[in-house]
Amino acid sequence: GAQTRDLLVMAGGDAASFARARPLLDAIAKRVIHTGAIGTGSIAKIMHNCASFTLDMLIAECWTTGVKAGIDAATIVRVFNEAALGQQMSLKVRLPATYLRGDFAPRFSLALARKDLGLAMDLARETKTPMRLAALCEQELTEAMARGWAGRDASIALTLQEERAGAEVRLPPA
Predict the structure, then answer these.
(1) For residue 113, which of 5, 60, 154, 155 is within the disulfide window of CB 3.0 to 4.6 Å?
(2) How many Å apart are CA 129 and CA 136, to the nearest integer?
(3) What does the pLDDT look like over 70-81, one tens digit per residue?
(4) Ramachandran angles phi, psi of 153, nearest 5°
(5) pTM of the predicted model, to two decimals?
(6) Residues involved in catalysis
């Protein structure tokens, strides 16, 4: 990426320092984001990479379960690429419209999400395929259901992490 400038630079620092560094950053990267105070660029990078690597592991759980259950590897990879996950619908559409706005009116209900995840976990058990990350997600959805949120949007389950962390993640009004 560096030779073609196909990079994203996440840079922290005070506004004046960032403005002075911006021409250099623009020379090495097509995309530059000022992340706030000094050190926040590193925080943004490691949190992004954490999510990316964790998602990779979860995808591997799903792919191995699917393959063991009889779907061709090329087919399941194609499905993932062409469906909502591959189109980045969670990051670009679903979560900005729901969780990041605190709007949990049902689009895809928690009850349906829990049902689908339960079916996936049943398949994993039938095929004797470990799905450790999916099992943790199943526990989270079950806890959210126990709170009476079944009819709300599935993204409401993400607020459980906010409660544990003592931090709310919301975008400003559009």
Answers:
(1) 154
(2) 15
(3) 999 999 999 999
(4) -65, 145
(5) 0.91
(6) 45
